[in-house]
Amino acid sequence: MKNIKNILETLDIYYTTTRQVGHSTAMIEGIKNTDKCIVISHNMDMGNMLKELIDVTPRTVTSLINKHLHTDRSYLPLTVLSTHLKGTKKPLFIDNAALQEIFQQAHTRITELENIIENAKKEDLKIEEFNKEISEILYKVKETNKAIEEPYITNCQKPPLGLRPRKISDQARIVEICEAIARYAKSGLDIPTEWIDELNDITEYYCDSDDCVEDI
Fold first, then answer.
1. Nearest in space to 106 (alpha carbons), one of 143, 133, 78, 138
2. What pTM does this model have?
C-alpha cells in the first residue's frame, strides 16, 4: 500500500510541475485521429472546451465529412464516469486534470484506510492488555478461594460446614463479575454500569478510611 501511495504522489507532483509542457495538446492530437472515443475531463466546462478544440472546425466539405465521422465522440466529466462506461467499447482518453483528481482521491482514501487500520491495531492491543489483567485477577481470586475452601472439603471429621463467610461469597461474586466483563470486552460490547457499580460496592465494603484490605 505504501508503494502505491508513493506512485500516486509521484504522478500527482509530475503533472503539477509540468502543466505547460503539452499534456492536453498531445491528447487532443490523439483524439483527432480517432473517430469513436470517450474523453474524460475534470469537469463539464473542461469537457466542453475540449469538444470545441477538437470537433469545431471551418465549414468546408472535408470538415463536414469529418464532423459526421466524429459524432461518436463522447465528452464526460469525471463525476459521471462510473455510470457511462458500462457496455461501451471505445478508446478512452483521460485529461491530465482528471487524472490528478483520481490520484489525489486515491491517495486520500489510502491514507484514511491506513489510519483506520492503525487505530484498530491500537484498540486490539488495549483489549488484549485488559484481558490479560482480568485473567491475572481471576487466577489470584480462584487460588485464594481454593486455599480457603479446601479445609472445609477435605476434613470430614469436623462438624458439618456452616454458612459460608461473606468474604468468600463476595470473592466468588467478584470472579463472576470479572469473567462477565472479560467476555463482554472480548466481544467488543459495552460493559453494563451495574456490574461496575456492584464490583465497586464489594471492594468498598472491605475498605476503611485509610487502607483497603488487599486479599479480598
1. 78
2. 0.47
What the block records as the C-alpha cell of 177 is 463479575
DSSP string, 49-102: HHHHHHH-----HHHHHHHHHGGGEEEEEGGGHHHH-TT--S-EEE-HHHHHHH
CA quadruple 183, 187, 192, 195: dihedral, nearest 10: 10
- Domain residues for the domain of 162 are 124-205
Long-range contacts of 195-199 (CB under 8 A, 24+ apart): 198/173, 199/174
List residues bridging with 41 in a β-sheet.
77
**Spatial contact of 102 and 118, defined as CB atoms under 8 Å apart:** no
Asked if 195 and 180 touch (Cβ cutoff 8 Å), the reply is: yes
The pLDDT tens digits for 34-49 are 878 888 888 888 888 8
Are residues 172 and 141 part of one domain? yes
- In this structure, are 9 and 97 located in the same domain? yes
CA distance 31 to 36: 9
Give tens-digit pLDDT for 4-17: 888 888 888 888 88
Cell 482480568 belongs to residue: 134
- Grid cell in block for residue 118: 492503525
Q: Are 48 and 133 in a shared domain?
A: no
How many other β-carbons are positioned within 10 Å of the β-carbon of residue 154? 8
* SS3 at position 103: helix
My answer on whether 15 and 94 are in the same domain is yes
